[in-house]
Amino acid sequence: MVICYMVMSFCSISQIPLVSLFLLLTSESLGNDITDALKNKPEWKDVLEFINKTEAKLRSLARKNSGSKVVFQVEHSGIPTIVHAPNIIKFDTILVNKRLGYKADTGTFTCRKSGLYFFGFSSLATRGTKTDVMLMKDGSPKRGIHTDMKGKNAQVAMNNIILYLNKGDEMWVQVTKGSIWCPGRSITFQGFHVPE
Fold it and tell me: CB 3.0 to 4.6 Å from 73: which of 6, 12, 95, 170, for a disulfide?
């Protein structure tokens, strides 16, 4: 789409008919015959050069970014319904796990590509308790949720962070004080690589 717009803009500036442009843009699907024929037309030289340079740039960008998307979104199924400190929360329902960085059996995300990452997580403290839930990086707390619920009250709390990870760094969510309540997929953990 971007190539079409750029070439159409170039053609309108160069006053090349759009019908001829259509033939040029469909040449890839029709084979090299049309492209070869147009190479012999001097008025198409600049357009062909523009298309070839643009295509080379886009292919280069695609190669650089191929496979760079790291995304995961997981939930706790509710079994067990209560997770006590000092346990790691094992989010066992995987909704998205592109590049397979998250492992449900350990509850950890392992960085496979160094760079900036966004992480978000939630907590639901058990009623009448003081609870701390921490997002951990290689054993060190990076972001926390503190909850002090009175009586029969309950509330979901969320927090997030953007931080730099090196390949091999591990992230997880851990109850460090009190306990959390996990009824039916009510708490989540997610993260993704932030393109620079």
Answer: 95
